[in-house]
Give the backbone structure.
Amino acid sequence: MRAAVLHQTGQDKLDVLDSVEPTGFGPGKVRIRMRATGLCHSDLSAMSGVLPQPAPFVPGHEGAGDVVETGDGVAGPRPGDRVLVCWLPACGSCPACRRGQSQLCLAGFMNSGTPNFRHGDTDVFGFAGTGTFAEEIVVDAGCAVPIPDDLPYDIAALIGCGVTTGLGAALNTAAVEAGSSVAVIGCGGVGVCAVQGARVSGAARIVAVDPVASRREAALRFGATEAVAPGALDEAVARLTGGEGFDYVFEVVGKSATARAAYGATRRGGTLCVVGAGAMDDDFRINMFELFFDEKRILPSLYGGGSITRSYERAIALWRAGRIDLAGLITHRVPLAGINDALDQMRSGEALRTCVEI
């Protein structure tokens, strides 16, 4: 079986190997033949060490495919079912799940410490307990979420992470109000989905902020009313809000400097929603006076900040109704053998989302 492996954290290229095997199949597990997977910036962050992940590992956590085999005790899905991969499955019984905050369930994170693959005599992990840059994966049954037959694999893969994260930040976490003003800082695949979420919510003004001109142009196609480079953000605040700041600002980069700029662009009493996944040693600093005096809400958003399966269903319903554009997110396609081209497209900002066809 072929899979793309990162042998050591910090390497910038993946090694596509033919002799990797999925491991761990048994009770409660499913084997999935992958059909499509998206490249998310979190994969790059895991490769560089910004996000913790044991190595060697197979990146990828945003995928879709067909169930090949199920282990004992699996009531669903069944062999032959089309599924998307959920990298953060809910156990359904922990305190977070019982409170209705399944995105905070830690069961899925525990999978990251168990090898998913084997190459020769070496154990190989799957990023976020999955590892979708492979022809087959073995995961907990809860990671395999059945999808309707009319949903293409490539679009289903994106719903598995980027779409759910971006839409959910606007719809669940921030709960953007109709008629409000919004700024989205960082307009890759997740940021563009936050733009779409704000548009669906009825925001009157949506300003996209990104250093890459092609991404600013894309954000306008997806519903932004204006797009500016980061250096023009202060001018946009002055011109569009009279210097007060936006009602909602989404930080979709994952850096403290960007979050600080986003905080400054948020009006007093407004909402800063932090969506980007950053490093553990990158501290975001606010002094106690401004925290008290400005009364700005700072809301982190993990995986869209709500019920994951409900968020999937909502994304599919909005896509079917033509309210959101998901096919347009895929700007590039490569085979698994071309995965390093996809990494370059992501690093340069050339791609919103590259679909890896397996």
In short: The two ends are 11 Å apart (CA to CA).
